[in-house]
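Question (not urgent): is this output format expected?
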Amino acid sequence: MTVSTMDEVQPIRIAKEQPNFVMAPYVKDIINRSLLYLKAGFPVNFSSPTGMGKTTLAVYAAAQLGEPVILIHGDDEFVTSDLVGGEYGYQRKKVVDNFIHSVLKTDEKLSRAWVDNRLTIACKYGFTLLYDEFTRSKPEANNVLLSVLEERILDLPAARGEDAYLKVHPNFRAIFTSNPEEYAGVYKAQDALMDRMINIRLSHYDKDTEVAITCAKSGISKSDAESIIEMTRSLREEEIDGVGPSIRACIKIAKVLSLTKADTPAFKQACIDILDSEMHRRKETARDFKKIMPGLVDKYFNRSS
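Got this back:
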């Protein structure tokens, strides 16, 4: 017997209109492309280094589809049952027969109860699946997605007690996000799964978009945002892999600046702490920010003061 899990797995209802979402031309192009692919029935994977805003884009795209969203975060401990469901707990059934008042008959059965999990719920009801950082789950845990994305059929264990296959609802759509394979804690996705998706590789936004996002997320002035963006972009251009500080680092610096002034030791130290923690994820990009950061702050903020 299958136990309904709509009470346990609640879909998220995301408003289409998001006032804080910055719809710059570069962002609009990405959203329009992703929605075109999704409406054509293809899953979309937003792929980028961390801090590029791929989850924000994925959430916004999911909202535009107009269906409730089932959110999954990739996890190294995941197995297939964490996506599909499994036997959790027991169900007790007792029948009492007292048709003849002098005779009492009882029949009692105890059985394992099947509980559907997020992927099954999304496939069954036509919700949008948003699988964030899916490559942090072991590839074998994601094998169940192959038939879902291609044949639109979910293969279910016999223990579920119903049909062995669930036909995927026509409204079901899937959106994924992932980091590059060289990131710690990330697995290489199987080719068969990637072949079923349309991969949208994200890079740094253009300057105007970064300025608009930084302003929207922190409330600082445009001139201050421009100084932060130019400062971080100057560091980005010097990096070996071309990655450098992300828009997330810019937003962090901007939020600190909204509480202090650029000419204070506290702000300069904040820049050191924020950029140092982000850039030291990889050894080849490690730098001594204590030496260069005060000069960069003076360079990019003095002219805007």
